[in-house]
């Protein structure tokens, strides 16, 4: 099934809700509505520049999804959680990392979650 402009707007609004909730407003986020392979959405980010691009699929496979609107909302939350843990992800994927970098990234996430939970 094709996703509409209305679906895309819902997705962007839900993403913004979670960006606000997780206090990630220091990121510049671009949204793209395009055909993706094997996923509802995808995120790419540049941690140093605090820039992210979130792609929302123009196709929606209802496999395993009972309600498309709820599925879109959950997908938006999922992508923003990836943004929330972007720093830890990048550190974990680095060829080198110091104990202090891991500890600092860990504390940053814990402090955010303290405010949210």
Question: Could you outline the blueprint of secondary structure elements for this entry?
Answer:
Layout (H helix, E strand, L loop, with lengths): L4 H17 L6 E7 L6 E6 L4 E7 L10 H17 L1 H8 L5 H18 L1
How would you characterize this protein structure?
It is a single chain. With 117 residues, this protein is of the alpha+beta class. The longest helix has 18 residues, at 99-116. The protein has a domain at 5-84: Metalloproteases ("zincins"), catalytic domain (Zincin-like), CATH 3.30.2010.10. It has four helices and three strands, in the order αβββααα. A three-stranded mixed beta sheet has the order 1-3-2.
- Helicity range of the residues? 40-55%
Q: Count helical runs.
A: 4
- In spatial order, strands of the major sheet run 1-3-2
Main β sheet profile: 3 strands, mixed
Keywords, separated by commas or semicolons:
single chain, elongated, 51% helix, alpha+beta, 3 strands, 4 helices, Zincin-like, 117 residues, 3-stranded mixed sheet
Concise account of the structure shown:
This protein has a domain at 5-84: Metalloproteases ("zincins"), catalytic domain (Zincin-like), CATH 3.30.2010.10.
């Amino acid at each position: 099934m094709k996703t509409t402009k209305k679906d895309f707007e819902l997705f962007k609004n839900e993403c913004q809700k979670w960006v606000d909730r997780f206090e990630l407003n220091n990121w510049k986020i671009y949204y793209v509505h395009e055909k993706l392979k094997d996923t509802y959405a995808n995120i790419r980010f540049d941690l140093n520049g605090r820039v992210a691009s979130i792609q929302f699929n123009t196709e929606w496979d209802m496999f395993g999804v009972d309600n498309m609107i709820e599925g879109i909302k959950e997908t938006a939350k999922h992508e923003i959680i990836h943004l929330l843990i972007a720093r830890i992800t990048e550190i974990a994927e680095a060829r080198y990392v110091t104990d202090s970098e891991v500890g600092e990234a860990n504390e940053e996430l814990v402090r955010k979650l303290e405010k949210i939970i």
